[in-house]
Recover the amino acids of this structure.
């Protein structure tokens, strides 16, 4: 694995294992440094376009179309892939599942299971990164 791929994966790992908490739509950090756009599809029938922006593995994500917040409590495996501008895979890695403390054992009335995908491109190198995985959590405010 190249040094650049290692750096990209190191920077993306906390973002990918990040998920969902949202503030009001006017406060969505779309343009913030490190903001990661994700599409989240949940078992409640909803598809959320979210921005995850923060430090650490358990950062919630902001729903861009409402004031809902999606809060993660456990992640399934997450797969990161880095390709060059021509689509050649430079690196791919799958991180193991994880749960935030004892929160995975709690049952909430608003609990949801979701899958997510996201990614971006480094404008300088043309490298493209993608990530995908599953997450369990809850939505605020409760509906």
């Amino acid at each position: 694995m190249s040094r650049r791929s290692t750096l990209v994966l190191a920077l993306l790992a906390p973002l990918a294992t990040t998920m969902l908490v949202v503030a009001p739509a006017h406060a969505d950090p779309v343009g913030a440094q490190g903001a990661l756009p994700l599409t989240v599809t949940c078992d409640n029938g909803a598809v959320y376009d979210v921005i995850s922006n923060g430090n650490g593995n358990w950062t919630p994500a902001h729903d861009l179309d409402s004031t809902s917040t999606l809060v993660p409590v456990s992640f399934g495996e997450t797969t990161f892939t880095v390709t060059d501008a021509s689509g050649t895979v430079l690196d791919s890695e799958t991180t193991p599942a994880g749960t935030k403390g004892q929160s995975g054992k709690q049952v909430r009335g608003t609990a949801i299971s979701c899958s997510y995908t996201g990614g971006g491109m480094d404008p300088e190198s043309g490298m493209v990164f993608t990530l995908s995985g599953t997450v369990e959590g809850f939505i605020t405010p409760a509906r």
In short: Strands lie at 36-42, 47-52, 61-63, 69-83, 89-95, 98-99, 111-121, 128-140.
